[in-house]
Amino acid sequence: MNSNPLLGVLFHWIGGLSSASFYVPYKAVRGWSWEIFWLTGGIFSWLIGPWFFAALQTHELLHVLHAAPNSTLLWCYLFGALWGFGGLTFGLTIRYLGMSLGMAVALGFTTAFGTLVPPIFAGEFTDKLLVPFGGRIVLAGILVTLCGIAIVAKAGRLKEAELSPKQRTETIREFNFRKGILVATFSGVMSSCFAYGVAAGAPIRELGIAAGTGPLWRGLPVLCVVLAGGFTTNCLWCVGLIVKNKSAPQWLGRHAQNHELPLGRNFGLCALGGLLWYFQFFFYTMGESQMGRYGFSSWTLHMASIIIFSTLWGFALKEWASATRRTRSVVWAGIATLVGATVIIGCGNALIQ
Question: How far apart are CA 228 and CA 232, in angstroms?
Fold first, then answer.
């Protein structure tokens, strides 16, 4: 298969921009509880988007999935369900920490665990990371990642100390540093399972190509299975909250305070947010298909681009407007450290290859 790494990098950065932007439309939703807009957008992210685009670009989609080994489908679904916990708490991370701080911490952990856990899971930690020089470079990159997370967290704590309770909630209505850090840590660890789900779908990609699907679209059927697992986790959680909070009438325009809800606008914003969330995976699989011998860098490119674009969004949304220049300098130093860590990890992976 002919590859084009430059095109692959472009796809990865478009996917990163989509991921960093997905929560922005949700901020404009009015009168809906978190569980209502999260599940509404999720239907577009985990069901409509994956199946629509896979059906559009995959030859004999249902036949390909039916022919896939049951073990492959199971692993893709289970890793997707585990990733779903990460996606679920990722939304809570943004809710408590905001775009730039929340994504930086969560994605820092995702980068570290997405690199570390696969060789541990495969029993190759010593052979791949301890013995070869490239492996030790990867471990150094993971240490730098943890340093970057610590720096960004320090910026968050400085911001919390500088602002009054009213100022903290002016741009992030539910700002809670302690709760947000705990949720972001869990989210980052579980979100790394997405990489395993995609890797487990290799037989599905091969079946798709054998059925006549172009190499650029070979990963789309895998997303149908992985994201179905994510949908299961998120749906169960949100339905539980809907029952507990009795928030289902909000879908019909009824609110506890009898406010008139902009239903058309809310559904449209959730659809946009959900599709942006899906497009990060859509472009990730396209980018990975074009990287060729540089495929090792796909995960780190994806993470770096999301961190950069989410930081830009955070400043555009004035999440750091009330912070001092010193605090803003600290957060930029943390972001630069995280991006540098992804470069180090990518270089280490190149040496291992």
Answer: 6
